[in-house]
Amino acid sequence: MNLDFTSEQDMLRDTVSRFLANECPYDRVKELEETAEGYSPELWQKMAELGWLGLLFPEEYEGYEGQFIDMIIIQEEIGKAVFPNPLFSTVIQCGSIILEGGSEEQKKELLGQIAEGSLIMALAQYEEDGSYLSSGIKMPAEADGDRYILNGTKMFVMDANISDKLIVAANIKDKGLSLLLVDAKDTGITITKIPTIGKDNTCEVIFKDVRVAKENIIGSPGNGLEILEKINAKAAVAKAAEMVGSCKACIDITIDYAKQREQYGKPIGGFQVIQHYMANMLLAYDTSYNYLYRVACMVDEGEDFTAEASALKACLNENYKFVSERAVQIHGGIGTTREGDIGLFYRKAKSCEYICGDTDFHYENLIDKILSANPI
Amino acid sequence: MNLDFTSEQDMLRDTVSRFLANECPYDRVKELEETAEGYSPELWQKMAELGWLGLLFPEEYEGYEGQFIDMIIIQEEIGKAVFPNPLFSTVIQCGSIILEGGSEEQKKELLGQIAEGSLIMALAQYEEDGSYLSSGIKMPAEADGDRYILNGTKMFVMDANISDKLIVAANIKDKGLSLLLVDAKDTGITITKIPTIGKDNTCEVIFKDVRVAKENIIGSPGNGLEILEKINAKAAVAKAAEMVGSCKACIDITIDYAKQREQYGKPIGGFQVIQHYMANMLLAYDTSYNYLYRVACMVDEGEDFTAEASALKACLNENYKFVSERAVQIHGGIGTTREGDIGLFYRKAKSCEYICGDTDFHYENLIDKILSANPI
Amino acid sequence: MDFKLSEEQQALKQEFEDFFKREMENAPLDYQNRSPLEAMYGSDEGWEFHKSMKKKLAEKGWLTMAWPKEYGGREAPVIEQLIFSEVQSYYRAPGLDGFGVKMFAPTLMLYATDEQKERLLPPIAKGEVQYCQGWSEPNAGSDLASLKTVAIKEGDHYVINGQKVWTTAAHRADHIFLLARTNPSQKRSSGLSVFNIEMNTPGIEVRPIEYMNGVHIYNEIYFTDVKVPVEERIGPENEGWKLTRATMNFERSGVGSFAEARRSFEELLKYVQTTKRDGKALIENQIVRQKLAKLYIGIETGRALAYKTAWLQEKGSLTFSAAAASEGKVFGTELRQQVANFATEIMGLYGQVEHSKWAHLNGVMIDGYQMSPGSNIAAGSSEIQRNIIAWVGCGLPRFN
Amino acid sequence: MDFKLSEEQQALKQEFEDFFKREMENAPLDYQNRSPLEAMYGSDEGWEFHKSMKKKLAEKGWLTMAWPKEYGGREAPVIEQLIFSEVQSYYRAPGLDGFGVKMFAPTLMLYATDEQKERLLPPIAKGEVQYCQGWSEPNAGSDLASLKTVAIKEGDHYVINGQKVWTTAAHRADHIFLLARTNPSQKRSSGLSVFNIEMNTPGIEVRPIEYMNGVHIYNEIYFTDVKVPVEERIGPENEGWKLTRATMNFERSGVGSFAEARRSFEELLKYVQTTKRDGKALIENQIVRQKLAKLYIGIETGRALAYKTAWLQEKGSLTFSAAAASEGKVFGTELRQQVANFATEIMGLYGQVEHSKWAHLNGVMIDGYQMSPGSNIAAGSSEIQRNIIAWVGCGLPRFN
To answer: Rounded to an integer, what distance in angstroms lies between the CA atom of residue D352 and that of residue D355?
Structure first.
């Protein structure tokens, strides 16, 4: 057992932390939220240069063969900064799917481009009824000669508006769920941003007679279910890492505020009720943080982590909301404003809740996994 | 609208309150808990003399034609005193069933005896799988000439051990759920107290070839479902009243303690965290108390109160547990002992939770009622 | 004891119902996808609608129903006010400038000169003016008595310098009633006075505070050498603190929160009955059912408390109603927070969507999710309310 | 970073597992229907079993595995202690007198004379004696420093008068280590001293405190002119307060709570899989499923924190582990409370049944329901723990 980070990991965290503090303070985050792109292409390039985008990929695809835990560190720091960027969609969701199930050609072609920052991607899985289940994916990919034709609507596709390519989950008759690589600029595709509390790039994507060449299936027809479930679990862990980082930032910001803000002649952090709020927030964070790395280690060690991924994400869904809500309450008026930084977290906590599965979805999934591991 | 009690009601409350304070202080409650009978026959006689047992019955059956709300006042005061006595089983459950569905002969014979304190009764409905649903009542009453034969086990029958007669819910073939009057001393009946956290008269009742004359059906065969559902709702309100009273006692006792107990040179009631605990306890009580009388008025006014009965009981299940648990926490060590009075409430809160339906049962029932009142 | 409305009360309730139902059919969209507070002050269209409603309420005599007869009111019993509040809140209807009608007017009635009363009360009663309340400051929130804005007397006027914050509707208001320190050598609640000031007086600068969802309700106000004639001081100099305690027998049960929550509950109920996910109506989901049950219980128990509060207030039982007003406030705002939480959870991925063509229930639930922390903080934070409940309701000793 | 046990650790864990699993098969029934604390001290049979286990643990060297080598220990790393605690707690096994081994022994090692060490440490190490801890008093609970029991020096002995309370196992103990005021003119933490006293010394009266469920764990102890030889004073006179701070590198992660909770979770899981109500297995009920999911998450996240606490403690990071010990305590005891709450809710009517032929899961859940408030109060209440977390973990200023 070794619960310390390597010195490389400490350095990585340090680099990410300093980069984001310098390049994207909270005021800049708020500016980016207001833009149509919702991210900074310039900072995206810098992230590529720093090697973060290819971190998880093998060397032969321009990557650094980093551990999953390295990406968790980056995500945690991104969460502290609530930094808007398409790393999650492009690298953690789509990059991992390609790496997991893509053909050699696809890997060669796409991973390098992702690593160098020239390819942004988005994963289109959910549909109009808002189901998280793979059985909720109804969109057909109709075979038509050497092509598939896509018609229908995908919802809540993160970063579709800035993507070059999409991975679309659709059903091929007699084969089942499949993942198709689609050019986001296809004329049959209409992408519209949905206004959400997270002020992020959540999109509606409408497909009208979009033709996809058969070689643009990731892997082979019908293997979509297996890949999606695995990558969704991994992505849930990575999203949880971001949320853990956000909890930490909420706590640090609020401690500072509670020490400095005075009422009735003493810092509000001296009032016992505020102290107990903060104790509960720290408890929520410390338990979450340590469990995060427990689960991240399972990923790196190749263990089955699907139950734990659900436990972790459900835990963070609740804890991030709890921590950010209490943080706002302790801040008082300023906490409720667009000017105050803490409101950012309160809004993001709510949008993070829905990404990669809400709490009820993960509770159910967790119990299913526990039951199959413990038959009567 | 008139939210005041009548002066008669104020007087009734006063009488009950003083009677219980004098006759059954908390030390006496603890003594009674340890006895096999679990109640005081002497106090039961006094209650009869004070007219409480016949309060709800019409004059022709030796009653006082009181309002339901009068009984609620008595129950509330009983709750404050956590006074162990069979009024709930005998009067509120069985007496109400006889009044609701009994024949003229049954009413004449039994209600007077109840009113004068010479007849104790218990309602045997639940069975071994612990279902609260009427569909969970599986015990058959097999027709055999001019009799029915009962075989099987009833569980969680309150006060069976001290009862003269039982009302047993059983199924008559082709007729359905029916309520039968059974002599508790029948040789085919075996009654055993079940040890529970409430240290009350919760019993197992085993029936072995118990013969019941056909005229001992309450009302007519097959009308048991309707009567039971109505009386169970009413009983839930009455049990909730007891729980409301108990919440009030917890709060009063704890306020006194928090004002008097000093640590770090000041009363613990001066610590903000204790103050917020108490504020939440008072909130739980004040909302519960006022809703109780809202629902009790519906009963007296003949409105359909089944949704509200479930809402009220579910609310008190949670609030009584919450209030009593916090009360123990504020008391510290002494709160966890048999000597300290507050522990009585903590234990009773748990047993009250199960009487007349637990929280999940009432949530489900409430939603069913809301849905049937609000069809799409 | 009975909870039945009298025939007159029933008729009155019906009149309120008919009026608000009819009028709100013409309300701008903002009133369907936002809280009334946001709709009233946050958009021009909403503000115009509020003003027109204000006139209509004034014509009906409903603005001032609780006022004493000598000032043109009809001294309506608290229960009638309660019914009004309940119906108005249920319909999420604007039209009441609470700052003028419920807060400043009682101060005037108690402490103003006859000249001031004649000049200031009629426009409030007629719904012609909008007030805002100049109390909170950057370093005087929960601890109001530490305020620092000064009003120094110079001949026939006062010169005001300082800053106010969290001033709801300041950008819409015609007047502000301001609490400022007229004797800077006195501390805390001593040496304060109250002023009536026109918002267009030179030296007053209003700066918007953007709420987290971008809506403009709150403001900062900067006072730089603002000259206010002596006649605009209300009540004795340096005795302003006691004016902040001026109150009238307005209902303060918090019933509006429960009526608003009931409206949301009904919308949510219809939603879960008619919305399917994974082939099943949401109402078949047991978790959804439990959340609805909990909300129903919160709404009905809170409402029962509010009725009792109004009843006792009517009967002059002020000790109970002082703690109960705090109870109603904290229970009501936290309940609305729970409504927003549960609703946005039940809605799944759609829970995050703000008003747009994709939004379910017009996005009003995620709006509530953003407004609810503000409600837990404004007008006495939940912490302050719980302190009061413990001190007044439980009789526990004040710390500090 | 990795969470894998080394081969040695894995072997050690297996050894603990095998031992406790085997031994607990012969445990008296009390160990199945009550908490270990109750079973150990609450019944004669349980007490005898505890004593026999203590001997066995001593023989294995596990009692003193964390002790310094000079006192016969092997200075086991914190992680090994953690594994031991986890396994022992999972099996609800007795055998450890924490008062002697973990609390009094370190005090002796740091402050006792050589004579005292030689006399007192070996019986503890061999599992031959039982200690109890004489700290709390009727008016000195959370505020320990206000204690009033006096020990007045008279020649070659001290005369002790006063009262202790909440003394766990005093009715079973051979010795008490007592904190008393040797200089009554000094206040609070000054003027206190620590004594080792045999429980059969004349003038000591132990009175049982009956827990709410009737079990006898706690006691009051009355000291009336109890004569204690000067040689039984540990450490310098009037410097006793600092002895209460004596500590060693024992793991204090609270991992035992999570292991106990995991055991309960597994029992509950099996129960809901195999128990039907209304024709359906309980596990098909979505409310039941969510409760289990929440417990699982609490157990696993708490356990992860405990491992980290032990890891940092091993590495000497005491600041973190000070706050973390409080976090583990409050999270662990409140989690066990949640286990008891959820389990007794899930069990429906059977949730209330105490150990008997009708009881489900031997009644252990309703026993836990009654024990959990005690756990939230004893050994530093949840309020004190949260204060410490805020002060040490968050660096917020101490009030008072």
So the answer is: 10
Same domain, B323 and B284: yes
Interface test mutation site (partner A, options C147, C352, C357, max chain A beta carbons within 10 A): C352
Compute the distance between CA of residue C75 and CA of residue C77 in angstroms, rounded to an integer: 6
Chain B partners within 8 Å of A271 (Cβ): 272
Residue B287 lies in a domain: yes
Number of structural domains chain C divides into: 3
Domain count along chain A? 3
Do β-strands D233-234 and D175-181 pair in parallel, antiparallel, or remain unpaired? unpaired
Q: Which residues of chain C neighbour A130 with C-beta distances below 8 Å? A: 277, 347-350
Sequence letter at residue A103 = S
User: From the CA of A256, how many Å to the nearest CA of chain D?
Assistant: 9
Low-confidence ranges of chain B (pLDDT < 70): none
The reply to whether residue B271 touches residue A272, judged by beta carbons under 8 angstroms, is yes
How many CB pairs (< 8 A) connect A and D?
153
D274–chain C Cβ distance below 8 A for any pair: no
Domain of A208: which CATH number?
A: 2.40.110.10
Contacts across the B-D interface (CB distance below 8 Å)? 119
pLDDT of residue C246: 73
- Taking contacts as CB-CB distances below 8 angstroms, the residues of chain D near B321 are 341
Shortest Cα–Cα distance, B6 to chain C (Å)? 7
Domain check: are A194 and A232 in the same one? Answer: no
DSSP assignments along D334-398, one per residue: HHHHHHHHHHHHHTGGGGGBPSSTT-GGGGHHHHHHHHHHHHHHTTS-HHHHHHHIIIIIS-PPP
Residues B104 and B35 in one domain: yes
B50 and B169 in a common domain: no
- The verdict on C138 and C65 lying in the same domain is no
CATH number, domain of B58, equals 1.10.540.10
State the residue range of the domain holding A311.
225-373
At A217, phi and psi to the nearest 5?
-80, 140
Over the stretch D296-321, which tens digit does the pLDDT of each residue have? 999 999 999 999 999 998 888 766 66
Q: Is residue A339 part of a domain?
A: yes
Same domain flag for D294 and D268: yes
**Mutation site for D-interface testing, chosen from C284, C287, C288 by largest number of D Cβ within 10 Å:** C287
Q: Which of B319, B312, B323, B324 is nearest to B363 (CA)?
A: B312
Within-domain flag for A74:
yes
Distance separating alpha carbons of residues C158 and C154, to the nearest angstrom: 6
Tokens at C67, concatenated: 């006022």
| Cross-chain CB nearest to A354 (options C166, C352, C370) | C352
pLDDT, one tens digit per residue, over C24-77 is: 999 999 999 999 999 999 999 999 999 999 999 999 999 999 999 999 999 999
- The complex's ipTM works out to 0.97
**Is the Cβ pair A155, C139 closer than 8 Å?**
no
Cβ–Cβ gap B291/C307 under 8 Å = no
pTM of the model: 0.97
Which among D296, D282, D288, D290 has a CA at the least distance from the CA of D335? D296
> What is the reported pLDDT for C294?
98
Helix H or strand E encompassing B122: strand B121-124
| Single residue among C237, C266, C282 that ends a domain in this structure | C237
Strand partners, C177: C133, C196
Chain C residues within an 8 Å CB radius of A350: 344, 351-352, 366, 369
Please write the tens of the pLDDT for every residue from A228-241. 999 999 999 999 99
D387 with D264, same domain? yes
**Residue ranges making up the domain that contains D350:** 252-393
Q: Do D382 and D257 share a structural domain? A: yes
Same domain as D212, residue D141: yes
Which pLDDT score is estimated for B369? 98
| Best residue in B271, B272, B280 for a mutation probing chain A (most A CBs within 10 Å) | B272
Q: Is residue B144 part of a domain?
A: yes
Residue B264 contacts A, CB cutoff 8 Å = no
Look up the CATH number of the domain holding residue D270: 1.20.140.10
**Residues A164 and A295 occupy one common structural domain:** no
